[in-house]
Design a protein that fits this description.
Elements lengths: L2 H9 L6 E3 L3 H5 L3 E5 L11 H15 L4 E6 L4 H13 L2 E7 L8 H8 L3 E5 L1 H4 L5 H11 L3 E3 L6 H7 L12 E6 L3 H9 L5 E6 L6 H9 L7 E4 L12 H14 L8 H13 L8 E5 L6 H7 L4
Parallel strand pairs: 2-10, 3-4, 3-6, 4-5, 7-8, 7-10, 8-9
Antiparallel strand pairs: 1-2
């Protein structure tokens, strides 16, 4: 394990642009939208994954763990980034994957395997109880000692890292939006900003009201300047339709910013829709957090979904 390289890598993340979206939708409403382009931090560990993995990897290194184990679906951004981090910094990595093995591997899992990640497939009924003593004990018997990182990377160390996201936004603004899957990034952002800024999470899965309690558990103190909007999931996690796909294609053509339909596409679509519905006061300045995840586009194209 290369602890020195790991510490140097996370000591100063590369600067990323804050790109203004000069679109008629916002000009007409006298509001401004900027996108924080953390998709550009790194080709493989980018967006929120950089910040969610940061202190987990440091903790694992400082406690001399040689193996990292985490959970995810077959197209998981987290699994992709973790596999690369393991290769880069000298950890063995185990990916506990939801469902059955399907060959040939999709581009996400193929990349993870090329990085040296070993897979352990859990049928969906077992995956739902993945943190139970029974499953964790089974994994320890199979792989020995390991540092466990939760699905999506969301734990208190991930929240600590995500709180640093807002330190990299160097303008005055009124709203900060991010896509919300597990709540870790949103909680970190809430912890990292002044209470006068409104933080809004866009839930990317259906029936996601449970995320409100999940975020509350991860907050450093009680905060009232945030909410999660639940109506922009397009049918559920990893669900989308032609309307969203067309929106993403038009947006990329106009602004040269890639989005994907699982997280960031839903995020930016929601902001446009809210602007059209006069959600924002004139003069408002909005920042949307681009959390990366673009590696998933290749798999979607392979399945002819984009």
């Amino acid at each position: 394990m290369n602890k020195k390289e790991l510490l140097n890598y996370f000591d100063s993340p590369p600067a990323t642009p804050l790109q203004e979206i000069n679109d008629e939708t916002f000009i007409q409403k006298n509001i401004k939208l900027f996108i924080k382009r953390d998709d550009l931090i790194d080709n493989f560990i980018n967006g929120n994954k950089y910040f969610k993995l940061k202190y987990n990897l440091i903790e694992a290194a400082e406690n001399n763990f040689k193996t990292l184990l985490s959970f995810g679906g077959a197209y998981s951004n987290h699994i992709y980034s973790l596999a690369y981090a393991g290769k880069k910094f000298g950890f063995k990595t185990i990916g506990v994957i939801r469902g059955e093995e399907h060959l040939p591997l999709n581009p996400t899992l193929q990349f993870a395997r090329e990085c040296g990640m070993e897979f352990y497939y859990l049928r969906r009924s077992d995956y739902r109880k993945k943190y139970s003593d029974e499953i964790i004990s089974r994994l320890h018997k199979e792989f020995g000692d390991f540092y466990l990182i939760p699905e999506g990377g969301s734990n208190n160390l991930a929240v600590k890292g995500s709180s640093e996201i807002t330190q990299r936004i160097d303008i005055d603004y009124n709203y900060l939006f991010c896509a919300c899957g597990t709540g870790g990034t949103l909680a970190g952002i809430i912890n990292g900003v002044d209470s006068k800024i409104k933080i809004i999470g866009i839930a990317v899965l259906k029936n996601a009201s449970f995320l409100i309690d999940e975020v509350k558990k991860l907050l450093a103190s009680e905060k009232f300047n945030w909410e999660i909007l639940l109506d922009y999931h397009f049918g559920g996690y990893a669900k989308f339709n032609s309307e969203l796909v067309n929106f993403i294609k038009i947006f990329e053509a106009k602004f040269n910013i890639k989005l994907e339909p699982i997280y960031t596409g839903k995020l930016i679509y929601a902001i446009y829709d809210l602007a059209k519905k006069n959600y924002f006061k004139p003069g408002s300045i909005i920042v949307a957090y681009h959390s990366g995840g673009l590696q998933g586009l290749e798999g979607l194209r392979q399945r002819n979904l984009l």
